[in-house]
Amino acid sequence: MRGKLISTITTGAIIGVVASAMIVPNMDRSTKRRVRKTGKMVKNMAEDMYDSVKDYIL
């Protein structure tokens, strides 16, 4: 089950990278900045969530 979860997350990440690579070149500077800022925010929230789940399990 763990292998399937990692595979699913990896597949989603790859799809996200490909989609962003197709969309980002058509954006202006402020939109790119906003996307980058939102991405950092989501990354930080995911890290916090991961740490919380890890602490809860362990």
Topology diagram in text:
Elements: H1 2-23, H2 29-57
Count of alpha/pi helices = 2
Compute the CA-based radius of gyration.
Answer: 15 Å
Low-confidence stretches: none
Helix content: over 70%
Mean pLDDT equals: 84
Q: What structural class results from the helix and strand content?
A: mainly alpha
What is the end-to-end distance?
A: 19 Å
Number of domains: 1
The main sheet comes to: none
Order of helices and strands: HH
Shape: flat
The total strand number stands at: 0
Strand content of the residues, in percent? under 5%
Which characteristics define this entry?
58 residues, 2 helices, mainly alpha
Concise overview:
The protein has one domain. The protein is 88% helix and 0% strand. With 58 residues, it is mostly helical.
If you had to describe this structure to a student in words, what would you say it looks like?
By secondary structure, the protein is mainly α. The protein has one domain. The protein is 88% helix and 0% strand. The chain contains two helices and no strands. The chain has helices at residues 2-23, 29-57. The protein is flat and about 45 Å long. The model has no long low-confidence stretch (mean pLDDT 84). It comes from Clostridium tagluense. Keywords: Membrane, Transmembrane, Transmembrane helix. This is YtxH domain-containing protein. The chain crosses the membrane at residues 6-27.
